[in-house]
Design a protein that fits this description.
Length: 152
Amino acid sequence: MEREEFQKKILNNYIKKKENQIESLKNKALNMNKNIEKEIDTMKKNKQVLEKLKQKKSMLLNQYNYLLNKVKYEGIFINIRNNNYSIKQWENLFIIKQNKEFIIVNKKGEHLDILQKELVGILYNELIEKRYSLMVMRISSRVIVARLIIKN
């Protein structure tokens, strides 16, 4: 009889341990399911953000191409302060890269002005590959107006 009670106790302990393990596994499964749902929600939000970023990138690329085409076909007028440079109308000017800046120079190599960073950002590849024409259009006592055109 003692032996049977001892076996019963052992079996009851074994059953309780297994029930506790099962309960623990159920809790883990529940937590994992909650984590999976959170990750799915995060993934959905990230997909939405990604789609918005793709749309914004597409819009910015369209604007960039529009501006680049406008520069190609119409050009940009650049005002340079006239410090009595020996420049004539219709003279070609050049753009050189010095350190991190793009500098407008005449054929004698005189530094006339520095290109705006915004303009350089848009036209960087064209400037590096020297696919541009920069010509003096008008000269006054205060300002030299040059026209920058991107070549195809």
